[in-house]
Amino acid sequence: MTLPSLRLKANAERRLRAGHLWVYSNEVDVAATPLSLFAAGDQAILEMSNGKPLGIVAISPQNLICARLISRDVKHMLDKSLLVHRINVALSLRERLFDKPFYRLVYGDSDLLPGLVVDRFGDYLVVQMASATMEHHKHHLIEALVQVVKPAGILLKNDSSARDAEGLPRYVDSAYGQVPEWVALEENGVKFEAPVQGGQKTGWFYDHRMNRARLAPYVKGKRVLDLFSYIGGWGVQAAAFGASEVMCVDGSALALDGVERNAALNGVADKLACVEGDVFEALKELKAAEERFDVIVADPPAFIKRKKDLKNGEAAYRRLNEAAMRLLNKDGILVSASCSMHLPEDDLQNILLQSARHLDRHIQLLERGGQGPDHPVHPAIHETRYIKSLTCRILPN
Fold this sequence. Notes:
Layout: E1 5-7, H1 14-17, E2 22-24, E3 43-47, E4 53-59, E5 65-71, H2 80-97, E6 102-107, E7 116-121, E8 124-129, H3 132-136, H4 138-149, E9 153-158, E10 171-177, E11 182-187, E12 190-195, H5 209-213, H6 216-219, E13 223-227, H7 235-240, E14 245-250, H8 253-265, E15 272-276, H9 279-288, E16 293-298, H10 310-326, E17 328-338, H11 345-358, E18 361-369, E19 388-396
Parallel strand pairs: 1-3, 8-9, 13-14, 13-16, 14-15, 16-17
Antiparallel strand pairs: 2-5, 3-4, 4-5, 6-7, 7-8, 9-10, 11-12, 17-19, 18-19
Helix pairs in contact: 2-4, 9-10, 10-11
C-alpha cells in the first residue's frame, strides 16, 4: 500500500528528530500537503521540508496535534503485524515487573501505540482507544491482543471525552468473549474486584500501585481517612496493612459498594466505614464533629483538565489539602496526590507548604511518588508523566 506524504516546514523536524512523537498543525507545509486532504485516522509518510522521510504518522487533521509518529521506519505502517510486535514488547516489560497479570499493558505514546490504553485483569483486557487510527484498526488490534495475550474476554471501554476531538462515537462493548461487570485483580497482596463495565475509566487505577504500597509503615494501628476513595484502592489496602479504622468518602454509591465488596474480600469489613456525598462537605462535617485522623489520603480526580483551569484547580487543591490538615492529629500523615498533568510536582509541594503555614503547622516531606513502571514516561513528552504523590508529616509549629 502506498501512503500519501505529509510534509513539514523547514526546521520543523528538529523536535521530532530529538525524540518527540507529535506534529503540530502549524509545523505542516500546508501549501505542499494540505491537511484538508486527509481524514481522521489516515496514515501518511512524514517528510522533512526537503522530502526526506522521517517515518509514518497517524493523522488527526482537525486537531492542534495533527499527527503522531507510529514508526520511524517507513516500511512499518500500523497493521496487525506492527500491533503484535508492539504489544509483545509492552508485555515483556510488564512480565518482568510483576509476577501476576494485573497491570497496564499498553500506555499510549510511551509504548509507541498512540491513542491506545490497555489494562489487564488476569484473563480479561479493558481497552480504550482515543484515536481514529486505532479505531480504524480495531479488528487488527483485537486479533493482535488475542494472539499475544490469549485473554478470555476483551472489553472496549470507549466512553471517554477524549474521543470527541477525533469525531469518534462513545460506546462500551465486549469485542471478544464475555467480560463480567466486576473482574478480579490483586495489588500489593490485597484482593480487589473492579467494575470495568460501569466504573471510572477502565475500572481501576494501576498508576498509584507503588504509592499505595508506601502506606504500609504509616497506617498500622492508625485511624485513616480516604478521600475520593473510589472502590477502596487506598482505604482497603490501609485496612489490610493493619489500620485500626478506615473511613472512605466518595460521591458515588457504586464506588462505595465496591469499597464494601473489597473490604469483605480481604476480611477487613469490620474496620471500614463509608460516607457517601460531596467530599468538601464531608470534610466540613467531620471538622464540626471534631473528628481526628492519624493518616489522611487525598487523591482527587483531576482538578486541572486544561491549562485554562489552572488557577481554579490550584485553589481546589489548596482547599482540599488545607481541610484535610485540619482533621489530622498533632503528628499526622497526609498523602496528597494529583493526577492533573498540568500541575507540576513542585507546585503541589508549594500548595502543601502554603496550607501548612496558613494553619501554623510544620510540614516534613517524607516521600515522593509517581506513576508505576507499567505507566512508563516518554522523556520527550512531559504529558506522559502525570501522577504525583507526596507523603507528608504535619506537626505543631
